[in-house]
Amino acid sequence: MKYLSTLLIIFLCSSSVIWSQGYIINDYDVQVELSKDGYFDVHEVITVTFSEKRRGIMRNIPKKIKVDGQTQRIKLSNVNVKDYEYKLINEGDDRIIRIGNKSTYITGTHSYDISYRVYNAMLFADDHTAFQYNLISDWDTAVENLSYTVTLPDYVDLSDDDYLIMTGDRGEMQKHVSLKRVGNKFIGRSLLPIEPQENVTIAIKLPVSYIDRPPAPVPFYKKDKLWFLPLGLLFLLINFFKKSRQNTTNIHTGASIQEEHFPPSEFSPAMVGAYYDNKVNTEDVIALLPYWAEKGYIKILKGDDELYFNKLMELDRDAPEYQRLIFDNLFLSDDTIILSELKEKMYMHLHKAKGLLHKELLEKNLYDEDYLSIFKSYWWLAIGIILFASAFFVALAFQLVITAVGLFILSIATFVMYAKEPKKSDLGIRVHNHLKGFKQFLENSPQETTQRLLDEHPKYFEHIYPYAIALGIDKTWLKKMNTYNINAPYWYGYYGTQYGNASPSFSDFSKDFDIPEITSVFTSAPAATTGTGSGGGFSGGGAGGGFGGGGSSW
Predict the structure, then answer these.
(1) Torsion, Cα of 332, 337, 338, 344 (10° steps)
(2) With CB atoms counted within 10 Å of each terminal CB, which end of the chain scores lower, N or C?
(3) What is the value of pTM for the model shown?
């Protein structure tokens, strides 16, 4: 009685282990047929009993193996599962044959008939070819019975030391599975149940020329014989680009910078700022506010720690489009607008106005027309895109790595040339030198010269201030101007009756008219919403040392 109790306990314990995964493999039959062409076909019939609801099983096939420290990539093809829905998915270093439907759960006994072809999994050593295959590898449940057949292409003379079967944990060499050779076949079956995570590996050492070997890989630098084409094109392109810009360099070198007290006529501060550094900044557009105020279109007021913009009259009909876009949307709802009310309302108009301002500059004959027609044309940009796409196509379709890299560098060169500041015309050079002299004067103007200009031109500060903003020197220029006995701009005042007839001082204006704050409001945009949500051949290294993955339920 005591003996029966012990057996019952052993049975219950072993049963709890077997069923811990909710399923067990009753029979696992593997048929492997090698081809002299270097691949082998695998046919597996796996009979499974599910004690808990599962969708099916997953069969893992490695994507690569290590041979003498080198990675050998595996190709899988001709995958088929009879009478069951399946899907091939990638997960880490494995291709997985996932069998079953994700919305359908099953229980009971099911038999899965799986077949596939494996390329590049043979192990080629200098003196032999090895087939080393994991019949069972790292399944997460027990296999009650295993049977297998490995068929060679034809009979070959082998000694008993040229083939063996290994079982147990990875690296172990137990003999819990039989191995018998019959002609060109190797057959066997399990002698004990195979526990979860145990391995069964068959290894066969074949003559060196028995299996056709793939040709030795050609180094990419020998395979790629077209690399000189993009390199030559790049050399020609760079030389052409340099010659196209040479004239500008010569004129700049010989030009002298003279002191200028006023900006170029018919140039708005936005155009001055954008042309000076060849970049349309937000401050270039913000400079239009005091520019319009100086011309009498608007008045800028301070009240209750807020800036107010009051429209006095409409812009002229012939005003540039970039100015009308900002002006009209500034006063879209009312003739008096508070700065804080413009939050998240101007950023799209600001972006469009920058594009219109850039277009306006290109139409002012400030740049060399021949240069623009080549390096600033849409077809030049299209060439860059085509070269960029060609680099990936050549790399993926023909494996011409060096040529692909050359095409990629060539495409980047075209994009850089497209984005680079255009070559200036003679007029453009004169205007740019004028702006250099003007900025240098504002930064380093002698006190007596500035005082004379203020005396001769009472509105000199109001006229120049917008350009100082666009040139990025407004803070330093305000500090310098604060040393002179001048008032706040005539177009700046207080908003509200609580101020009476008081007028702001120049220091008040310097503090209140905050360019960074205005820039922050004009560029503010609504917050984006986010969702939640073994060696080089047969080595007898132990079980699990061959090719072939395991599996699981799901």
Answers:
(1) 0
(2) N
(3) 0.56
